[in-house]
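Sorry, can you check?
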Amino acid sequence: MNNFYTLKSFRPTIFLLGVMMSFQLSAQVRFPEFEVLNRGNLWETINDDGRIGYVDPMSPFSSYPSMDWPGGPDELRAKTEQRSYQAGAGLWIGAQKDGALMFSEHGPFSIVDEGTFEPISRRDNYIEHADFDSIMPEQTVFASWTTSTGMRVDLESHAWSYPGFNNFIIHDYVFTNETGGVLTEMFVGFPWLLRPSYQDLLVHNGWGDELNRMDDVVGYDSLRNMIYVYDEKMGEDIPWDWGNYLAEAREVRTPGYAGIALLYADATTDASIQPANVFWASILDYPGKFTQSGTTSEALYGLLDGSNTSMQHTGTDFITALTLMSCGPYDLSAGESVRIVLAEAVDGLPLEDLLDIDDDGTQLEIVQARLSEGLGMLETTVDSAAVLFNNDYISAAYPPPSPELTVVVVPNQGIDLTWEPVHTKWLTFEEVTRRSNSIYRIFRSDHSFNGPYVEILNKKIKYITEAEFEQDFTLRDLDENLFVGVEYYYAVTIENEDGQVSWLTNRTQEPLRYGTLPAENTLGVSVFPNPFRVKSGLPSENDQQLITFTNLPDSCTVNIYTTDGKRVRSFIREGSLRGEEVWDQRSSTGIEVVSGIYFWTVEAESGTATGTMLIIK
């Protein structure tokens, strides 16, 4: 099991959950093993028991992805940095055997069939690897289990980084009858809690609870066999509620349309068109009716075969949705199998269109009016998934691999980037000389790991002699156009002679801050911004919370106090190579401080500096 993608620090938050959104670990008989797909722009957690998405997504202690778009980084500093589009996904299997119904439930809530689970694994087939195999997906998670009723399930979940193919994940299922008997009228269902507005709770600490979550709209695209959900604003009767807006970052957080599409299903017994049933309902209107702990297996089976339509939601009003797509009926003799393939996808407005949005309503209205553009983007993404699947996961063209990137802060100079050239791995000297079109592009973001990224430099490769081509060397650039106290992320891509461009797979996970050399004493210590306001002019979402101490000695202690003398935070520097220290406005216990006046001291052998700072939020 992967142990990355956790929170660096924990800010205690109260999340008020609805009846069916309670993922209490106490209800779990067994906590599943899992792997994370993190190669593309869409990140997902695959469990070994049939569920997709982290089984406790509202946990403030971890941030494993649940249809995170864009996903990453591996470690988050706060839960509000996570951008999830689903609150759980599962698998239902129902069939007739010997005149009786057999039914197994694998989520999306807390009930999981007590079957037999095999070890889960992940295969990385990255394009930059020497043994890259072009006929296989870039990243695959393998999960296999046998239900308590004797149905074996083999799942392969695939992800890619290639531009145009990195906003979807394909789930390839094979169901094998190992019951020892004949199954008839078998239906397989895929229940998903698609929840773009799930982030409303994250960014608003849970206020609004059920009302705040009831602003998703569900649609169905019969051409693509796709259920999709998007986050709409609340009704005009609550004009102050912009659930998908994070004020402290001045950012609209849920621009994407989330969809589940049926790419393939084996022919059914009656040769009927698939999916057999497409269903969605408001879980808040029917608490307990979508799990065997609150209803019967027969009622759930009725949702699979389409005979139970009493809870089907109609209209386009806002709901907190459970969506379900089912396939069948299948008659399977002992040992026979059936294959079903789904794609999960998210796409929508790019991040650069969602930043620097003021909360006066005008800009929010403009962005809100554009959210519908995301549906066309999602349709294009699902079409790309279908093309890749229909071509046996073989791409018509492959981008070059991104180089391995090393980034180092050089005090008083800038941020140094170095990478080994990778174009020599697929081009000969004659090709380089003839086409002369391999270009490395350096990108930088001063907002977050997920961008937006801006190209700051490009390097075109040109050789005069073949000896130069064969010589080992390192490419380098020094970024000097920087601000002290601002966090920066970097990536390097390469464009080959055919115009194929690698993706940002080498993004720096940790932000880098440009700094100066340590001072000799404490005479020049200063703090900025002071006073601090939410809109202090710093460019990054994370920088919006940072206060920087500058001109510090290499060895000193920085203390921050409230007006009543209570120490909030301390930084102990011993032989530091930089003259800055950054405070994220959190106490030593990880709690964000409130507005007010704070005192600070810097104590070193060369002397002591003191001062005050004002925080306005």
Q: What stands out?
A: The CA atoms of residues 163 and 503 lie 6 Å apart. Residues 1-28, 234-242, 536-543 have pLDDT under 50 and may be disordered. The helical segments are 198-203, 209-213, 297-305, 362-370, 373-390, 429-435, 466-470.
